[in-house]
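Quick one, T. Sequence first:
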Amino acid sequence: MIYVDADACPVKPEILKVAERLGMEVTFVANSGLRPSRDPMVRNVIVSNAFDAADDWIADNTGPTDVVVTADVPLAVRCVAKGSFVTGPTGRVFDETNIGMASAMRDLGAHLRETGESKGYNAAFSPKDRSRFLETFDRLCRRAKNA
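Structure tokens:
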């Protein structure tokens, strides 16, 4: 199963392409409307607008051998702890070897933004990011299916 933190996810078409090729179910989870799909392998879950409602739903439903796509580091921490394969939309893999550092860097960045030391601008999503995501996502999905 593939779970996607779908609010502002820039790689939905790539997710659907890989999932269809590998015969995997996809669940898009969001706080707001999602484009309906007629594909029986695609499910949309709309959660409340409560803070972290989509993250909580994904963390509560994912488990070992599931693949999670999220840019949210705290959600990635929760999913890695449950044994899920986790990647961000730029192809960054989160696993037990790097999730602690990713969480620490996120917290440091938040602190620097709060103190005014950093403006907190994120780089624009590029075609290279999309390509790296597609390669990483395909590899993680294959690992999940074989696990």
